Amino acid sequence: MTSDPSADPSTLAGRLRDAGSLKWTGVDAQIAAWVAESDLGTAPVVLAAARDAVGAGLVGYLPPALRADLGAATAELHAERYGWDVDPARVHPVADVLTALQVTVEHLSPAGAPVVVPTPAYMPFLTAPRLWGREVLPVPMRTDDAGRAALDLDAVDDALRAGGRVVVLTNPHNPTGRVHDRDELAALADVVSRHEGARVFADEVHAPIVHDGRRHVPYASVSALAASQAVTATSASKGWNVPGLKCAQLVLTADRDVHVWPRVDHVATHGASTVGVAAAIAAYRHGLGWLDDAVAVLGEHRTALAEGLAEAVGTRVRWTPPEGTYLAWLDLRPAFEVVPDDLARWVRERTGVAVVDGAACGEAGRGFVRVNLAMPRPLVVEAGRRLAACLR
Ligand SMILES: Cc1ncc(COP(=O)(O)O)c(C=O)c1O
């Protein structure tokens, strides 16, 4: 998982490109720090489970026993790591988090209601609901007293008053790396409760990756009120780096959803992959040691980026190291009189580093870039150095 800290960045990049991931082959760049895939691989037990499933010929539709085991493993993980008691029968496999959002929007929320998306946001949350015939109401996040991104609850309240009925809560947050605390989540539940039928889609896909001894707090675990509003989506896809295995989990805590579910179950769960279910079970039951090591490496990569960026920090770049996720959110606005229209391209042409343009995360992200820290350490340092140099 770790890389030789003295290895040459271009050799490392060449090896990763040869391995052929989307991150390293989807964009023409010398350093691929864009899409949220990790170069650290996955846990051997997860790979073994996927291989065993294939070896046993488990490549058909999802057998009920495996599905039930996923519910049990998801519940075990949430009890052990987050102190949240999940009913295994209320855990349902879906292909991915976007499918979970689609089901929530189309079947578990008032028909036709707009979707409230705090911004900056994971990019598809701003576009996908429109494809499902829903208006998106972007709500810029605020900066709290500690300089961190925080929910603007008054603005969320306004968006719900304007008709929004699904609030997309991403926690830990992509792209800002914020890990919301219990008080903030409880305050959101209070605001949402003022609006008849309003729901919270809690995207907790980054929950396994939190730093500095923090503990992820699942939204639905905060109170009975939050549980009655929540539709929770989680997955092994970020923590164990297996998005291609197509298995997320949707956790229902509102009784009314449990009544609706049988009607949507077949279509909603059909895309979850049998091999992905086997891999997720292995990750949750046997992959926690590997995860903890990976999170320690990713946490240290925040220092690696700081090292690379050093000469620009405070003058041309502002950032707060992420509390969770392996994404760094850099404010480059101090470096420009006028921010270039396509900031990711501007950066890539000058540095060879592929990043995500903050503007793709909503207007609130204009002038920011998102940098993926899940690369070998020398590449993280080098990406930081090149960024700092191009802003001179
Ligand atoms: C916040 C967030 N939600 C959802 C996803 C998509 O997850 P998946 O497609 O693996 O379910 C991502 C991927 O980067 C993400 O960052």
UniProtKB/TrEMBL annotation:
A single MF term (Gene Ontology): transaminase activity
Family note: Belongs to the class-II pyridoxal-phosphate-dependent aminotransferase family. MalY/PatB cystathionine beta-lyase subfamily.
Pfam families: Aminotran_1_2 (PF00155)
Cofactor(s) this protein requires: pyridoxal 5'-phosphate
InterPro entries, alphabetized: Aminotransferase_I/II_large (IPR004839), Class-II_PLP-Dep_Aminotrans (IPR051798), PyrdxlP-dep_Trfase (IPR015424), PyrdxlP-dep_Trfase_major (IPR015421), PyrdxlP-dep_Trfase_small (IPR015422)
Domain of life: Bacteria
SUPFAM superfamilies attached to this UniProt entry: PLP-dependent transferases (SSF53383)
Name the record gives this protein: cysteine-S-conjugate beta-lyase
Keyword annotations: Aminotransferase, Lyase, Pyridoxal phosphate, Transferase
Aminotransferase class I/classII large domain location: 41-379
EC number annotated for this UniProt entry: 4.4.1.13
Organism name: Cellulomonas carbonis T26
